[in-house]
């Protein structure tokens, strides 16, 4: 019960937060939505539906392992930036929630498969 009260209190506080902070958060979120949408347009849905949640977890683990290695070693990334990797982590979270909510396979618009 105490946990629920703490969460409710935090949610109430968050709703009164800085609009500047919320705008910055929304800008990042919108960018990730566009990124996920663009990538899924290219991939289609089978890259996720073929392996389900375990496939998402494997991809997520790859991204987290990459981040851990880069932060631990202090190496500069050779390919995508660290920010790109964090965006991918969030994107896989969105995809997982869409799979759970059974919205991942909603029509995506104009899909062309080769």
Which SSEs are present, and which pair or pack?
Elements (H helix, E strand, L loop, with lengths): L1 H14 L3 H25 L2 H4 L2 H22 L8 H19 L14
Task: Explain what the structure shows.
With 114 residues, the protein is mainly α. It has a domain of 78 residues. The protein contains five helices and no strands. Helix 2 crosses helix 5 and helix 4 runs antiparallel to helix 5. It is globular, with a radius of gyration of 17 Å. The protein starts with a helix and ends in a 14-residue tail after the last helix. The N terminus is likely disordered.
Summarize it:
With 114 residues, the protein is an all-alpha fold.
Task: Provide the descriptors you would attach to this structure in a database record.
74% helix; mainly alpha; single chain; 5 helices; 114 residues
SSE class: mainly alpha
Major sheet? none
User: How far is it from the N-terminal to the C-terminal residue, by CA?
Assistant: 53 Å
Strand content: under 5%
Give me the number of helical elements. 5
Number of strands: 0
Shape type: globular
Order of helices and strands: HHHHH
Mean pLDDT: 87
Which regions are unreliable across 5 or more consecutive residues at pLDDT < 50?
1-7
Helix proportion range:
over 70%
Rounded to an integer in angstroms, the radius of gyration calculated over CA atoms is 17 Å
